[in-house]
């Protein structure tokens, strides 16, 4: 009986995070990762075990992406906006270039956004100012 219940829980958990897996792999493709910090990001591994990701207590949603100080280069993918469960996005202290994608304004659950110590240029998109839950730091 216990194994049947465990199987159902694992199946439900996987189905909720499988769409996130697709989007995180797309996000990964925008980064230049010379230090291999994203090597754990592979379709065969449980997304909740990927470096820099934190899942909710019931493992059904990714709630945090923290790759601060990971030596990443490249740009911030607009596809981050598809991870609507994100509460924390920390890409600080890397070598990221380009602009802040306005699509980040779609992250309605975002409470923390850390992009400092990068080479990002341009204006902060107006959409970022619409976050009701975003804490200032």
From TrEMBL:
<keyword id="KW-1133">Transmembrane helix</keyword>
<protein>
    <recommendedName>
        <fullName>Leucine-rich repeat-containing N-terminal plant-type domain-containing protein</fullName>
    </recommendedName>
</protein>
<dbReference type="InterPro" id="IPR013210">
    <property type="entry name" value="LRR_N_plant-typ"/>
</dbReference>
<dbReference type="Pfam" id="PF08263">
    <property type="entry name" value="LRRNT_2"/>
</dbReference>
<dbReference type="Pfam" id="PF12799">
    <property type="entry name" value="LRR_4"/>
</dbReference>
<feature type="domain" description="Leucine-rich repeat-containing N-terminal plant-type">
    <location>
        <begin position="21"/>
        <end position="56"/>
    </location>
</feature>
<dbReference type="GO" id="GO:0016020">
    <property type="term" value="C:membrane"/>
</dbReference>
<keyword id="KW-0677">Repeat</keyword>
<keyword id="KW-0812">Transmembrane</keyword>
<dbReference type="InterPro" id="IPR032675">
    <property type="entry name" value="LRR_dom_sf"/>
</dbReference>
<keyword id="KW-0472">Membrane</keyword>
<dbReference type="InterPro" id="IPR025875">
    <property type="entry name" value="Leu-rich_rpt_4"/>
</dbReference>
<keyword id="KW-0732">Signal</keyword>
<keyword id="KW-0433">Leucine-rich repeat</keyword>
<feature type="signal peptide">
    <location>
        <begin position="1"/>
        <end position="19"/>
    </location>
</feature>
């Amino acid at each position: 009986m216990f194994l049947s219940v465990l199987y159902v829980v694992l199946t439900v958990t996987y189905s909720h995070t499988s769409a996130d897996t697709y989007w995180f792999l797309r996000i990964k493709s925008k980064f230049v990762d010379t230090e291999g910090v994203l090597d754990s990001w592979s379709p065969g591994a449980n997304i909740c075990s990927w470096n820099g990701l934190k899942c909710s207590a019931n493992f059904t949603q990714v709630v945090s992406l923290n790759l601060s100080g990971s030596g990443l280069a490249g740009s911030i993918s607009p596809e981050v906006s598809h991870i609507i469960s994100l509460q924390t996005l920390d890409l600080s202290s890397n070598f990221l270039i380009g602009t802040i994608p306005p699509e980040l304004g779609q992250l309605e659950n975002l409470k923390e956004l850390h992009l400092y110590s990068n080479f990002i240029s341009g204006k902060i998109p107006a959409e970022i100012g619409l976050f009701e839950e975003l804490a200032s730091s």
